[in-house]
Every structure is written in structure tokens, then in C-alpha cells.
Amino acid sequence: MLEYRTQGFNGYAVKYSPFFDSRVAVASAANFGLVGNGRLHILGLTAKGIVAEKWFDTQDSLFDLAWSETHENQVLVAAGDGSIKLFDIGLDEFPVQSWQEHNREVFAVHWNLVDKDKFCSSSWDGTIKVWSPDRPTSLVTLPTHACTYSAAFSPHDPSILSAVSSDSQLRIFDLRTPPSASNHITLTIPIHSPNPRLPPNAAAPNNQGAQVGPFAPAEALTHDWNKYRSTVVATAGVDRLIRTFDIRAPDQGPVAVMQGHEYAVRRVAWSPHLADTLLSASYDMTCRVWNDGFNDAKGAVIGAQGGPRSWAAWVAIPSSCVELIGACLGMRGGLPVSGGMRGCVFGM
């Protein structure tokens, strides 16, 4: 297992470059993001380990990042002062562009994978904004009226955008709809809602011992779109449960409920190669690989990795091939990468 220490900074997000499978970027913050500076690390995965290629310091904490889908050297970061900055790693010191419209911490940025001249951001100020890197102001503002921890465009439709927030809601927006009183929102799913097809407190269909309800509302911290099933979204958060939803049946509750983490789940990511496999990272210091039961209805934990030195707070999957071998995560030409709030980056 490869390891790199972000000395003096605590990691919040890690992403593989869409152009180079040996390059990752890490967004980090001093003092666990409570106060102090931030740093964007550009790391290379080599035969001799993880090496630092470059870094950029910022005046406030960095909480998320996204690689540009059109320029191989550009990285977007979300900052604690409400700003969004675009860095070019071919240049030194300063960002090539900066935007400042959010009133509180920006906690997520996501580049549109289909319409590649747009990206979105979400903030603790209760708004989501859609941007173009070529314009100085936002294109659209979508209010959620709740602290919004995660926002992302669908990888299947450039006009569909989703978000999860502190009010335990999964929201789906369609930017093609007219800007009316609904502010482009087309669907709101209570994440804590039970599955009405099963009696209260019945075992969940994934046989993991989780209950289908009733659940108390809890802050949702992360979500991700399935790369093969265009209507399936995974969510997770403070209640330690990972749920999958089919947005074609919003009233049916979660399709699967996966239980196993002992503390809040900080990040989930679907596999880019397998339709039923996702990874999760939690404050219980573990990363876990799950089968959501799409193919065989097992919904089981396939593997886990953790250690006493670091909280597992974020996870990314490379574009190169990753294979599941037995009960652990194997590699063929690429590495899943995780990291921790104690300042470590791991190539598993």
C-alpha cells in the first residue's frame, strides 16, 4: 500500500486526473479545516511511491476539488471563505480564475462530465450555483434552504443536477425546466424514509441487518450517481447507513440499505467499471467496498481497509481497471485512493 503524508494539512478530498491515471489532486486544510490556510497538492503515483509534483497554498481551508474536463492542467477548488478558484498546474502560485458569490463555506464542486464547459458548486449558505469557467458570474443559482454538503451533475444527462443536504433530502434539479417558483427542482426524496413495501422494522432486502424504518432524519454528507444505471443514486451521512434510490420510484424509499460503518460516512463513490459496486469512506477509519445487490441481491460488504492512524474521510477510484479479487480490493493497472484527516493519502 502506497502512502503520502500531507504534512501540516488535513485532507478533505482527493480526485484522479481524467487525463492521467498516475496523477491525483488533494484538497487539504490546516487545523482540520477549523481555522487557517489550505493547500492543493498535485501528486504522482510512481513505482517508487507517491511523490509531490506541485502544491498551491490558499488563504482559507480547501474542502473539495474537481479536475477540469477540458484542460489537462486545470483544477477547481472549493474554499472555506466562500470562493471557488481555478488553478493551472503549469503555472506558479496564483489561480487563473476566482469566483466569490457564496456567503459561507463552499463544500463541494463538480465538473459536468457531458456538457464540459459547466461546473457546479454547493455551499453551507443553502445554495447551489452553476458556472462556466469563461464567465465571471454564475449562470444559475438553485436555493435548497439547507446546508448543502454535496452537489453533482448526472453523468448521463448534462441538464440533471442532484444534491444532498443537512435536512436529509435528496434533491433532483432539471435545468431544462422553466425557472419558476420551484427553481428547477423536479424531485425531492426524504433520505430517511422507510421502504413502504415492507413492514416497519423489517430486515432490509440487502440482508445486512439494517432496518427499513422508521428512521430519524440525519444530515446527508455525500452522494454519487451510478455510472451504468442512469436513475440510481447512492447517499450516505451521519446515520452511518448507505442507501441507494431509484429516482423513477421516489415514493418507494431506498432500494438497498447497507449497514456496517460505525461512524458517519464521509464519501461514497460508484465503481466506473462495475454497475453493482461502490466504495465508501467513514470517520470510523475504514474504507469499504460494497455490492448493492443489483445482480445477486446480496448487498454485502466485499472488502474493507483501515488503520488506527487515520480517519478515512475521502475516496476516489481511478479510470484505469480495478478488479475485485476475493474479499479484498485488487489492482490491475490502477489504484483506488483514499485518505485521512490525519494527513495521509493511501493508494490501496
UniProtKB/TrEMBL annotation:
It is found in: Cytoplasm, Cytosol; Peroxisome matrix. This is Peroxin-7. The keyword Magnesium does not apply. PROSITE patterns: WD_REPEATS_2, WD_REPEATS_REGION. It comes from Ramalina farinacea. One of its GO terms (molecular function) is peroxisome matrix targeting signal-2 binding. Coiled coil: none annotated. GO terms for biological process: protein import into peroxisome matrix.
